[in-house]
Specification:
Number of strands: 6
Structural class: alpha+beta
Radius of gyration: 15 Å
Order of helices and strands: HEEHEEEE
Strand content: 35-45%
Length: 137
């Protein structure tokens, strides 16, 4: 499958929409970004794997004031996997209320549905060391 320019723009906007919805508290709209059976992997943060937009909403509400006040996404790279699936890798920056921030990598599988593109799988990996841990000794 060749990704058209329209597909690339739609997927990139889909990934960006997540931050807008979460930061505004529009958690009831997460199904506009995620498939109904999305697998959202937060194990790198010591949390469980969440299934479905409702589970994402509940987890965000449970985290409460500890949620970042701003989610920013950048460096989106798309690769067609065939069968209507696309791998989307992007970088995320989360800004906390106290001004501290952290960096993550989003590794997504995006699928075309009757409602448009949706994230079917997301693995969130924290960036904790420079250069992916590669250092000269």
């Amino acid at each position: 499958m060749t990704l058209t320019l329209e597909d690339r723009l739609a997927i990139t906007e889909l990934i960006a929409l997540h931050g807008h919805l979460v930061d505004e508290g529009d958690l009831d709209r997460l199904a506009e970004v995620f498939a109904s059976d999305v697998v959202f992997d937060l194990t790198d943060f010591g949390q469980s794997i969440l299934i479905g937009p409702d589970a994402l909403r509940e987890a965000a509400l449970a985290l409460g004031a500890a949620n970042p006040v701003a989610h920013h996404v950048t460096n989106v790279v798309l690769e067609s996997l065939g069968d209507g699936r696309v791998r989307a890798r992007s970088k995320g920056l989360g800004v906390k209320a106290d001004g501290t921030c952290g960096s993550v990598t989003y590794d997504d599988v995006v699928v075309r549905t009757g409602a448009g593109w949706r994230v079917a799988r997301r693995k969130v990996t924290a960036r904790r060391v420079p250069l992916g841990g590669v250092v000269q000794g």
